[in-house]
Amino acid sequence: MTDNRHSWIKRGLTAGLFYLLSIAPRLIGRPKRMPGKFYAHRGLHDLSLGIPENTMAAFRRAVEHGYGIELDVQLTKDGQVVAAHDFDLKRICGVEKDVDELTYEELKALPVLDTAEHIPLFQDVLDLVDGKVPLLVEIKYKHVGSSICRKAAELLDHYSGSYCIESFHPVALMWFRKYRPYTVRGQLGMNFHKDDGRVHPVYYFPRHLLTNFLTKPDFIAYDHHARSALSLTICRVVFGIPCFAWTVKSPREYYACEHVFDYFIFEGFLPEESDIRNCS
Predict the structure, then answer these.
(1) Active-site residue 45, yes or no?
(2) Catalytic annotation present for 41
(3) What is the pLDDT of residues 209-236, one digit of tens each?
(4) 252, CA 20 to 30 Å: which among 146, 208, 265, 280?
């Protein structure tokens, strides 16, 4: 009985060690932390003002308010890098096509959410922001072999402002680890099963940050509703990695998670650091 107990203890310790090694972020040579605290989710959009998400108007408004910007980038049919979140155009443009099925010129003809805005080029966003506020760029990695990482990186190579990249897909982060190791990179995570009903094994790994040993992220960006997740807590408390909360949609949600996270991706309210507690 004693031998069996010792054997189980040894196995448990071994499994625990492998688990810690799997979720360990970059520990040596981690870049300087990002400036700012609040990042406007897909720009500072407000559809009631005719300013939809991930458009030049939303990014311009975020710059005017002095907020950092979180945005998403992916490729068009002709290989242009554009700012768009969904892979398909149904929700934002009412078209039964994917972004990468149309050229940029074709996309320009489609109004976003029935406004005067259209899906912009990433380069135009960079020119607009011009280092005035920090950028958090989510790489929308659709399939293995995509050139989105290389093309986005080539544009960012000529950008002098503060920025970092993030992605749910570990292959995107592995690309940046190999080819742009100096770029601050972050692993996106969430409880896929609880929030989206997805139970495929592939979602188990990013949920529990088990690919960190491959991607070696500099920060974690996690759904703030799942802020008590074990792997997130260990990365934050034991490894001291900075953490972004997404997406905070009210002062109440901010108060609930402010003690856990360092940065906050927000929408639907204006979280002024000086008077956020006076917001209703």
Answers:
(1) no
(2) yes
(3) 999 999 999 999 999 999 999 999 999 9
(4) 208
